[in-house]
User: Fold site-specific DNA-methyltransferase (adenine-specific) from Blautia wexlerae.
Amino acid sequence: MNEEKITGTEKEFLNVFKQLCISRSSWQVWADLMAAMACTLANSVNKTLPAYAEREKEYTECIERLGGVEKPAKCFAIVVEALERNPDQDFLGRLYMSLELGNHWKGQFFTPYDVCRCMAEITIQDNIQNLQNKEWVSVNDPACGAGATLIAAANTFRRKGFNYQTQVLFVANDIDRVTAQMCFIQLSLLGCPGYVAVANTLSNPVAGNVLMPEERPGQEFWYTPFYFRKEWSMRRQLQIFERQFGALFKPKLEPKVENIIFHFDFEKGEYKCQNS
Assistant:
């Protein structure tokens, strides 16, 4: 049987997506698709319990509602191919807005990717000298949507000669779980190390060390596969070591050394000393 060739186009994705919407709303189908993709990517590397088991359960429920794994898997393959062919785009975000799935009550009016790319180029270029002197930097988008701003930053870093997989940590935050998962999916497929937090940036902001955020009540974290690369794991281990034992290894201040000259006063018959 001949295998159907996947080209990674929006038209190709929409053809499969419409087949899944025969008996359900497009919003319900989209939410289940994004959750299934996100759970697949997260559980491929992050086995931490109980989150791993919860994601497995959610994935099974989503696939059941979608009528089986075949069409969701094809949608996933199309997204993978699209970002492989052209990483410099917001593929899911553009589809999301074209399907009119944006929630205007949450302010979901995604910034066009070309605007995000322009902002990334200006910001990084203005700070290029400072960035080149650092071992690594972090980029934060507190209202990430599908991740267009961070995707643009990753591509800009690449064009400037930075290895963003080892030198840049991508931190994202959004109040909407579905769009946060969209951001997570795209960052993961583009090889961006970092995490996406589902939380209210204003009333429940992400806190703690940027390498190891504190997971507070009302927050849900999605860590990209490249967050677990050895470079980033080593940096987290060093942070833990410094937090626990740093005070023991801080260099002590050396006392000020002065030259002292001794001489004998023959008239008084005694030793005297003076600083040089």
